[in-house]
Structure formats: structure tokens, C-alpha cells
Amino acid sequence: MPRPTIAIPPEIEQWIKDQYCYEHKTAEELVQALANEHDIEMTSRTLGRRLQEWGCKKQTRVNYTFELVSRFLILFYQMVLDDKTITYILNVEGMSISYSNVARLRRKLGIRRRVGAGDYDIAWEELIAIVEREFHEGMLRNYGRNFLYAHFRRSQYLVSRYVSFCDFSLF
């Protein structure tokens, strides 16, 4: 004869889902809380099976929408931000995504970070040296911002539009 099923009221079911998915409680912690607060006795395996039936997972699947990908590309190319900062900004803007999913999206799009986070100052000094050299050679004198950006990209320099719009009148 099979064991009787444990009846869980809908409000406690919602509480369990919230605790498991959003508060990141483990199944063992929830079993103890159910026993202490709600007088419901069950094993962590039973609770895990119920969570699976309810479709509650801690690992959320990221839906790579056009809005998410386009915002990621803007933050990566135009603002030249690292993955950690991009993750923070996307989460603040209401797009739920983890650091590993941002890195996975970047790899999926075939984008590599060629300059490490600590090497920005060195890369900036190299860019200034390149601009000074090409400006004194007369190559950049008449370039507007679009031609300047296109010239950098053709020369295989990874420069964002923001950096190419900088005022190089110092030279």
C-alpha cells in the first residue's frame, strides 16, 4: 500500500517556492522550517521532488532577447565595461542575468576581451601614442569622428566610439 501524500496548502507552497528560489534556502533548511513552523513532516528528497513538480529551479535560464543582447553590446563596445560591471548594470536595469551568463553571452557572440581589466591604463597610453604619431604624420588632421573611428577599426585597434570621440586637440 502506498504512503499517503503530504498535503501542502497553496500559501505554504508559495512560501516554499519563494524561500527556495529567491531566498536561496536549501531543501534541508526548508524541511526544518516546515517541521518547526508549519508542523509538516517530510524529507528533503520529497521536498526536492515537489519543487521539481512545481517547476521551481534555482538555476534560471536566461532568455537572450534582442533588448538584452543590444544593451550588452552597447555596454561592452561603447562604454568598454568589464563583465562584472555589465552584470551589475543589467541587473539594476531589471534584466536578471548572472556573471557566468554574461561571460557565456560574450563567448557566444564571438567577442573576446583583448585587454584585461588591469591593462586599461596601458592600453590608453598606447592609444595616445598612436594618435600622436599619426596626427604628426598628418593622417588624422582632417578626420571627423566617424572617419576617426573607422580608421582605428581598420588599423585593428579595439577602440569604442566613446574613446574615438574624445577631444584630441591636445596634439
UniProtKB/TrEMBL annotation:
Q: Which superkingdom, per the lineage?
A: Eukaryota
User: Could you tell me which Pfam families the record lists for this protein?
Assistant: Clr5 (PF14420)
Annotated ranges, domain Clr5: 16-58
**Protein name as it appears in the record:** Clr5 domain-containing protein
Species: Stereocaulon virgatum
